[in-house]
Design the sequence.
């Protein structure tokens, strides 16, 4: 009997492993999430170096034409089930650089996004709230 | 040699090279230089102590049909900044390179200006693209390339009511 | 393959086959190695290395992952809007770049900010410099394998970010706090006491016995030596130049704001290796703390913004002309060249960042001939910010 998608998710997404794609301004508030004040290792989240080990990809800010190609390759190398979280307002509407010729305006045209966190840049507590919502959403799946 | 004041340096330049300039405030000299003999003038300036090439900037004046280049040089001993402003033609934008004088720092600046404005520098063999990958089109920083129109057509959706605000 | 009985047989068998197959094939290099593009602590930047065995034979920088075209974005916006955009030139030292832009507009319009505003600007700029050097220390520790130093550094940095939030409203981006004409609002009550407390904690962090680790010292000493002649020729500025022997600092040579009234030293070292750059950075934190203390003592009373900018008028014309402003941001010498043709938006803004020359000529020069294991230590000892390069 095939295993349901929600069961797979419930077994695998209990402690999130994040891939280290640190890019542009939004990442500056991801570093305190790793460091000692808002320690994320107490929730079981660690940063890994290879996309094949990761569950979650944080796209933290604007992407240029050159770096969106690499981000798409990273996304395709991750194994399912995988979650993409987009941080910052540049991923939703273009943000501060809406009239620049080299940045992309809507991330969902290139990579399917599961969750958006608004802010410029969003606070570290917002990142934890997003992860808690993911856990809750997976729990409530039938 | 002892540190010299800005007025003294300006006096020396105008007596040797007959170039007019002005001292705007303490430690700032601005000169309008011709393109002939530019490289020899720069070599003379480097021997006088202007060892640090801070930046090379390019300005686009389409109404007057020219590009203007500004070279900013700093001397660690005299603590003055000289800015040399040179005008070149816009249709046929070619300039002699200064990489033989300030090799190392001038090459990277000229590479950037070549990519973003389209100005060629004779004598610099390394004018490869620096920031953009597979860019065909006008050099992006020229005044005839309107970014808001370009972005409106390429990225935003004409039929979407909420995105139409980015057009007007 | 049939099963082998002992471990030594397996190791010997695999070693003999692999060694004969793994000779470097080409005369000139061996193989290509791409170092990047995601670096923790600095952002996206790649370096293409050609490696023969363990030694790097050539390196080429590959920038452009963060290029937004800042200089032309500023042409579409008025100075009051540009002061919010100017924080984002380099995210790790936002208030210093705010100050560069504000000084450029003031010099073009020939406006002088009041005395109290100048002292407040110096305090905020020095706090931003301390915070940026702490990031440098943390990233250098990751690069050399000392993870405890990274957690310690970023723990202490949060005290400064709380202070920024209290004074300007934002932890990382102060939303144009330092604007042309002065600063947006005055210090709230209790800010000066809180600054003194935070400086006490930072001084406790700097006790070198806690931070020096034999692994860090062993990996950084004698690595990436930059001689003084090469440093001046390739255009290095800031701590990188001071660690090679030249005592050059824009705050002393070409003073701006009220830096000539303070008594501080400019640390220099002779060796020019990665360890010397690290020590210069640590000593600069101490000197910045000294400047802030003197500024707090000398802080005068009065207005914080020039009368012309007190009520925000959307349209202010910038007179014709051009100006070049030099400042010392945490990474080196920053320059901004602004040209105006009489309208209300600048005609051309050219931004000269310190990391532009640190990453393209200096990095390529230092990586040639180095071992692969030393590449992270050299890269992070130069204190690079890719956003500054690509703008």
Sequence:
């Amino acid at each position: 009997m095939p295993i349901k998608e929600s069961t797979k998710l419930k077994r695998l997404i209990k402690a999130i492993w994040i891939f280290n794609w640190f890019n542009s301004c939004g990442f500056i508030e991801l570093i305190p999430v790793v460091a000692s004040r808002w320690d994320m290792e107490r929730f079981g989240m660690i940063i890994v170096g290879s996309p094949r080990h990761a569950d979650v990809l944080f796209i933290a800010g604007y992407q240029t034409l050159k770096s969106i190609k690499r981000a798409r390759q990273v996304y395709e190398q991750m194994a399912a089930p995988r979650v993409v979280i987009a941080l910052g307002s540049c991923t939703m509407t273009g943000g501060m650089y809406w009239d620049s010729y080299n940045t992309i305006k809507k991330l969902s045209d290139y990579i399917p996004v599961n969750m958006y966190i608004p802010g410029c840049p969003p606070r570290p507590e917002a990142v934890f709230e997003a992860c808690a919502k993911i856990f809750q959403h997976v729990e409530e799946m039938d | 040699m002892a540190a010299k004041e800005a007025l003294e340096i300006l006096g020396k330049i105008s007596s040797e090279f007959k170039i007019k300039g002005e001292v705007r405030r303490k430690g700032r000299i601005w000169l309008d230089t011709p393109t002939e003999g530019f490289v020899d003038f720069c070599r003379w300036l480097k021997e006088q102590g202007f060892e640090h090439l801070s930046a090379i900037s390019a300005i686009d004046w389409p109404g007057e049909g020219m590009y203007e280049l500004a070279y900013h040089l700093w001397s660690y001993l005299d603590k003055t900044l000289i800015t040399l402003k040179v005008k070149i033609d816009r249709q046929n934008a070619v300039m002699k390179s200064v990489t033989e004088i300030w090799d190392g720092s001038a090459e990277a600046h000229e590479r950037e200006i070549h990519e973003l404005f389209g100005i060629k520098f004779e004598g610099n063999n390394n004018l490869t693209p620096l920031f953009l990958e597979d860019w065909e089109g006008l050099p992006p920083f020229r005044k005839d390339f309107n970014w808001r129109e370009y972005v409106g057509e390429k990225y935003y959706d004409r039929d979407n009511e909420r995105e139409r605000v980015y057009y007007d | 393959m049939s099963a082998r009985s002992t471990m030594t047989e397996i190791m010997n068998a695999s070693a003999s086959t692999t060694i004969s197959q793994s000779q470097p094939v080409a005369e000139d290099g061996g193989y290509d190695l791409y170092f990047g593009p995601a670096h923790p602590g600095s952002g996206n930047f790649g370096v293409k290395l050609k490696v023969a065995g363990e030694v790097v034979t050539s390196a080429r920088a590959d920038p452009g992952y963060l290029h937004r075209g800042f200089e032309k974005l500023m042409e579409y916006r008025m100075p009051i809007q540009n002061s919010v955009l100017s924080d984002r030139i380099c995210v790790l030292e936002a208030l210093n770049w705010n100050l560069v832009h504000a000084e450029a507009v003031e010099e073009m319009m020939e406006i002088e900010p009041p005395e109290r505003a100048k002292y407040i600007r110096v305090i905020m700029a020095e706090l931003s410099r301390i915070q940026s050097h702490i990031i440098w220390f943390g990233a250098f520790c990751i690069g050399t394998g000392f993870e405890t130093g990274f957690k310690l550094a970023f723990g202490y940095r949060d005290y400064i970010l709380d202070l920024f939030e209290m004074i300007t409203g934002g932890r990382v981006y102060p939303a144009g706090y330092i604007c042309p004409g002065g600063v947006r609002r005055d210090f709230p009550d209790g800010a000066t006491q809180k600054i003194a407390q935070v400086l006490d904690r930072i001084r406790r962090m700097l006790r070198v016995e806690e931070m020096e680790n034999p692994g860090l010292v062993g990996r950084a000493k004698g690595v990436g030596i930059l001689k003084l002649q090469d440093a001046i020729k390739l255009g290095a500025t800031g701590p990188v130049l001071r660690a090679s022997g030249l005592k050059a600092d824009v705050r002393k040579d070409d003073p701006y704001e009220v830096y000539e009234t303070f008594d501080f030293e400019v640390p220099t070292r002779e060796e020019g290796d990665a360890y010397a750059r690290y020590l210069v950075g640590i000593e600069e934190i101490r000197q910045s703390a000294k400047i802030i203390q003197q500024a707090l003592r000398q802080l005068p009373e009065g207005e914080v913004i020039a009368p012309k900018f007190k009520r925000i008028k959307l349209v202010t014309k910038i007179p014709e002309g051009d100006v070049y402003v030099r400042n010392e941001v945490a990474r080196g010498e920053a320059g901004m060249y602004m040209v105006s043709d009489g309208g209300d938006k600048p005609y051309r803004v050219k931004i000269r960042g310190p990391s532009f020359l640190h990453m393209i000529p200096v990095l390529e020069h230092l990586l040639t001939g180095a071992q692969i294991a030393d590449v992270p230590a050299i890269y992070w000892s130069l204190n690079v910010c890719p956003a500054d390069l690509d703008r």
User: Anything to note?
Assistant: Residues 137-168 of chain B form one domain. Chain B has four helices and seven strands.
